[in-house]
Predict the structure.
Amino acid sequence: MSIRNLSQEVERCPPQAFTTAIQLKHLTCRRKILKMLEELEANFSLVCFILCAGHFSHCFSLLAQIMLYSFKENAFMYLADSAINLIYIVIPLILMFWIPEQIPLEMENLNKIIRCKYEIRTSFGIVSEKSTVEKLLLEEKIFVVSGCNLIFFRRRNILSVLGTALTYGLLLIGLEVRK
């Protein structure tokens, strides 16, 4: 929300009024937001990793349960129970990757808006007197939430995680069926 509010504030500012003082104010706000995000990640990185690993391994066990009980006589009850539990595990696993992706998307939007402001200012012939502030504002600082820098919570990783759980789950089931 803070990033979105900052983006809206920058967008509302006319290009002529986007002076060095305003730019420094926005740079300070962005730095505070980044610092807050880094502190949050430092505090919750391990918890996120453990939570994701737990959901991931639970997917394995439920997949194994579905495969093993599908050969039993009263398989329908076991399969229905496992399928419902799998839904309860997969949805939070997907949301773990979906929701944190909003941070990089908002940051990319902010960078796009700032770049657009500079382009409009330049097209009007307004060249800033302090290029370091401009460089810092245009610097791409995209923050991605991670779990111990091993799992990066991006939407594009959802299918990879689910595919990995399915592949290794089936491999483990294949080993069990052979025995």
Notes: The radius of gyration is 24 Å.
